[in-house]
UniProtKB/TrEMBL annotation:
InterPro entries hit by this protein: HI_0220.2, Uracil-DNA_glycosylase-like, Uracil-DNA_glycosylase-like_sf
Pfam family, one: UDG
Gene3D superfamilies the UniProt entry points to: Uracil-DNA glycosylase-like domain
Source species of the chain: Methylorubrum salsuginis
Protein name as annotated: Uracil-DNA glycosylase
CDD domains attached to this UniProt entry: UDG_like
Residue intervals of the Uracil-DNA glycosylase-like domain: 56-218
Amino acid sequence: MTHRGLEPPAPFALAMPAAPALQKNFAQTAAALRACRICRDAPRFGAPLPHEPRPVVQGSADARLLIASQAPGNRAHRSGVPFNDPSGIRLRAWLGLSEAAFYDAAKVAILPMGACFPGLDAKGGDRPPRRECAPAWRTELLAGLPRLDLILVIGQYAQAWHLGPRPGGLTETVAGWRDILEASTRPRILPLPHPSWRNNGWLRKNPWFEAELLPVLRAEVEAALTDAPGERIAARGPSPSSA
């Protein structure tokens, strides 16, 4: 179920950039976001953020790849660097990218659904993304990314926003990656689970992810970062499996 405040604006669209006349300056919007304190000073959903906000985003108007993620973890909060933790190591391995390529803001944008670390729950896990963030900032940030060739939607919150309502949960969404990829044009879209160690069990139960999706993912990422926008031949995966 999508939390109120994390649903996409209506009418729903697949996160396509706005027309040139409506495109915003990404750098200006990102700078304004980094100064945002709405989740602490004017929370709309629940208690204020219990620590000093530190929005963590990356990108530029020339970015070709968008990593639409969940929310920064504690390490990213402390450092200001997205995915500088074991989840980031796994994600970069999935994508086939070095640290230098992953953190090249001229080509790779990283926009979590909630830009600030949301804090920990009673079990020590990260809380869901703050629900104030996406309605306030996401549409304007996406409008500043006119050259996107590929969007990777990581986890249920990003998938709900970028893909709209879908039957089933995260497993069904990720298992439907071929249909999602083929239905998208530019930017192309691929759904992924979160690379957290908490999903190790999911990865063991779903071996098709590494066997079938990851090779296509790496080909799509390489194409997006090396070819001219809209001029590449789509990477094709193997025939659908029963998974």
